[in-house]
């Protein structure tokens, strides 16, 4: 999770890794997957697409997903915090074992 969260930050500092062997490997596949294929952005492509904006999702479940995700994350975090507090109280109340039969 931490690595996934750091990915947008790392993309600004580290260049994209595109090994040369991948292009060589694509040459053995059918022409639709070849290195000069329009599917991969190579060759003489005549179509240029310019995105002018991001279309908002239709009202409904798509707009509720971030709220549900955040609510679920907070519930899990609170449950984890409650259990951590229980463990902390148990550790404070614990006493060292003094009986000889319990020692190794």
What can you see in these coordinates?
With 104 residues, the chain is mostly helical. Among the domains are: 13-42, no CATH class; 61-92. The protein is 50% helix and 0% strand. It contains three helices and no strands. It has helices spanning 2-13, 20-26, 61-93.
Key terms:
104 residues; mainly alpha; 3 helices
Tell me the layout of helices and strands.
Elements: H1 2-13, H2 20-26, H3 61-93
Question: What's the count of strands?
Answer: 0
Cα end-to-end separation: 40 Å
Q: Can you write the helix and strand succession as a string?
A: HHH
Mean pLDDT: 78
Biggest sheet layout:
none
- Beta-strand share of residues: under 5%
Counted by DSSP, the helix tally is: 3
Percent helix range: 40-55%
Low-confidence stretches: none
Summarize the structure.
By secondary structure, the chain is mainly alpha-helical. The protein contains three helices and no strands.
């Amino acid at each position: 999770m931490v690595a996934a969260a750091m990915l947008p930050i790392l993309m600004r500092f580290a260049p994209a890794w595109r090994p040369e062997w991948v292009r060589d490997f694509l040459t053995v596949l059918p022409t639709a997957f070849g290195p000069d294929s329009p599917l991969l952005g190579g060759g003489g492509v005549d179509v240029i697409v310019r995105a002018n904006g991001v279309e908002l999702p239709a009202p409904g479940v798509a707009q509720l997903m971030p709220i549900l995700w955040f609510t679920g994350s907070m519930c899990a975090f609170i449950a984890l915090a409650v259990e951590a507090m229980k463990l902390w109280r148990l550790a404070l109340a614990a006493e060292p074992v003094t009986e000889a039969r319990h020692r190794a």
